[in-house]
Fold:
Amino acid sequence: MMIKSKLIFFFLMTIKFCHAAVFDLPSNEQDVIGSVSSVKATHEDTLVDIARRHGLGYLDIVRANPDVNPWLPGEGAKIILPNKFILPPGPRKGLVLNLAEYRMYYYPETLSGESPKVHTYPISIGKINWETPTGLAKVVAMAKNPAWYPPQSVRDEHAAEGDFLPRVVHPGPDNPLGTRVLRLNMPGYLIHGTNRPAGVGMRVSHGCIRMFPEDIEFLYDQINIKTVVRIIDVPIKIGWDGDNIVAEAHQPLEKPQAHQTEEGYASTLSSADELVNNEITHKDPMTYITEQFVSATKNRSGKLDWKIIENVTNHLDGIPVIVGKSLSELND
Structure:
């Protein structure tokens, strides 16, 4: 098993991947970055391969290509790349993680003479019963090539499946933390790399945030201690693209339950810093639409096309769609 893991690790290290996309940050009155494009699959490709090459996670690309076999798309198959995003609501500062879209946004500080930028990365989040909490946090420690000390609860879980974990997993191809780790001031929660990149963009962790190795390594060099981290759960976003109102709809996450993190700490986040009530994951999609529309039109009036809205909430494919116009545009 160890030899196999090392061979896989060596193979992955020989593949060149680019870190996730960097975009010019639009003005506060605008909310859309990127564009939707397409590529042709090769004979050797899987959707996982294509997704990683283009800064996408598993669910990003699978939901955008529902009629394509994820593991055998086929030579010449047209693959949609959903690299168009509505920026999440709230302050454009530090790290913003939107759990429902399995995506991180990083707003670096703008240096003199530079234009503002935003980076975006696919992420994995906590699986059912090990949910990642929402809230306001900050980075309190950073480390390269960390050792992993699996808590007893995680060791027991693995043992029940016949996989017996050691008390310490040293740096290397068998370490699930990868090569970089960011510790948050939420006890037990980390942002880290992974030795299983195929799982990026899914609910597979014990509460921590996983990133592609190349993404966490790039991000690690951009941020520092005390970087603000805001974790939200907003499955439907609405914003402005010029005079158009656009909506981006994702499948809402199931309701969180009490659980432990990968480091064995119970999640009891219930302070005033909590940003999103856990119960919102059971709201009707139209309720999300109404809330986000009200927020997006605080300073600018607009009108929605409810027939298009209904179609968007039925598909939930994560691709931004024009759903309305500004009132000034309609009156011209």
Q: What stands out?
A: The helical segments are 2-13, 47-53, 58-64, 152-160, 213-220, 285-296, 306-315, 327-331. Residues 99 and 233 are 5 Å apart (CA to CA). Residues 2-13 form the longest helix (12 residues).
